[in-house]
Amino acid sequence: MNAVPTTNPLRDKRDKRLPRIAGPSGLVIFGVTGDLARKKLMPAVYDLANRGLLPPGFSLVGFARRDWAHQDFSKQVHDAVREHARTPFRESTWRQLAEGFRFVSGDFSDDDAFDRLADTVRELDEKQGTGGNHAFYLSIPPAFFDDVCKQLARSGLADPEDENQWRRVVIEKPFGHDLESARELNETVEAIFPADSIFRIDHYLGKETVQNILALRFANQMFEPVWHAHYVDHVQITMAEDIGIEGRAGYYDGIGAARDVIQNHLLQLLALVAMEEPVSFDPADLRAEKEKVLSAVRLPQDLSLHTARGQYAAGWAGGNPVSGFLDEEDIPDDSTTETYAAVRLDIDTRRWAGVPFYLRTGKRLGRRVTEVAIVFKRAPHLPFESTATEELGENALVIRVQPDEGVTLRFGSKVPGTSMEVRDVTMDFGYGYSFTEESPEAYERLILDVLLGDPPLFPRHEEVELSWQILDPIEQFWANNGAPEQYPSGGWGPESADAMLARDGRSWRRP
């Protein structure tokens, strides 16, 4: 007689809708007094706990030069959570989470401080049950990465005590300021931590809509046939901000818009849009396809014609008068740091041959928006009177990353009436209207991925170095060719950016 199975194999398959919950673990934040920790990291930790995605004994350790006791740190976290958390404040969640709070005071070169940190981690393993699993978040300037990594190695914090434990390091962008510094940084970190324990955070890759690019492309048969040079005229990738440098002169001057945004955020978006279908969504397969795209990127032959840069001048923002970049506090009068950057890139693959990718980013522009626009070629023959299509533009698929996440499809439709008149219309998909689930904040997703050891959204050093190989020649060209063009605050950038597209017979989309 055949044995009757005691379980239903279909029922035993894991429901993919179930949340992924981190196992025993803790997080150590270096630079815990900074804006990133206060506005993003600590609230994200609380929101994860509030959603039930952290283990009951999760620990959070702050490391900084402040002379704080554990309860002082707890108050700082409390205030940050109250001000910036996205989920409701629950006393039960807070009490459980706060039991794992610790603070270590010290300098990055202080051996005693790191020895105290090692003692603190061991104490948490014993009292909180963190199991020897700890992630070290370097929310600090890259100049200090070397000191911290060497201290983590010296104190034994970088090395798990047995093969069932893990230690991971999280690095915030910028990953260097050029190719040479990026390579030095990678060598420093990879000398201490194995490659699969290094998580380079690009928070844009944690945004729901960015991840939806993969779903849009590879889960829908209707898009694949037109996703190449036969039908696509060009692609525009835009990240516009309506604010200025917001008192960040010390960081921003000398960095500029291209290093701050194009090298990481926008080139990652380009790679996701242009990549071939991966064998799977395994991290290695995803990275392989992105690296192929970045290695195939070709710069314009004449950078003077196909790049543009600018600095915001005085103007208006939100109905209020604002000063220009050179009038900002601590910005030198002769600064050549750009607050706007635009560039044309081409991709030498069969899929994208002849299709230009236009990337732009800027501060103090007309509105805050990030989007990817796939602009299609015009129909080869229009059997209409010329007056019937005066208001007909090019078809476009627009992926809105922020602030109103979704997808818009623009196409031509007949205007109601007795005559044949065609006009552009749009179909909209918005996350807020289509799903009842609230999208997690980017840092929630990324911190959880670190704790789970799930790295598909984190670029490896090969991607970082390929991105710098693209940007370095542009930066060198700009450094040898005068100052950026001034553009009024509240507008859409310098005239040279419009001229750049006009030379190709195109124009920027108005988001």
From TrEMBL:
One GO cellular component, as annotated: cytosol
InterPro entries xrefs: G6P_DH (IPR001282), G6P_DH_AS (IPR019796), G6P_DH_C (IPR022675), G6P_DH_NAD-bd (IPR022674), NAD(P)-bd_dom_sf (IPR036291)
Pathway where it operates: Carbohydrate degradation; pentose phosphate pathway; D-ribulose 5-phosphate from D-glucose 6-phosphate (oxidative stage): step 1/3
Domain of life of the source: Bacteria
Record domain Glucose-6-phosphate dehydrogenase C-terminal: where: 214-509
EC number: 1.1.1.49
Span of domain Glucose-6-phosphate dehydrogenase NAD-binding: 28-212
Residues the entry annotates as binding NADP(+): 65, 107-108, 173
GO function term, MF aspect, one: glucose-6-phosphate dehydrogenase activity
Region ranges (Disordered): 485-511
Keyword Flavoprotein tagged: no
GO terms under biological process: glucose metabolic process; pentose-phosphate shunt, oxidative branch
Active site, renumbered: 265
Compositionally biased intervals (Basic and acidic residues): 501-511
Family: Belongs to the glucose-6-phosphate dehydrogenase family.
Function: Catalyzes the oxidation of glucose 6-phosphate to 6-phosphogluconolactone.
Protein's recorded name: Glucose-6-phosphate 1-dehydrogenase
Organism field: Haloactinopolyspora alba
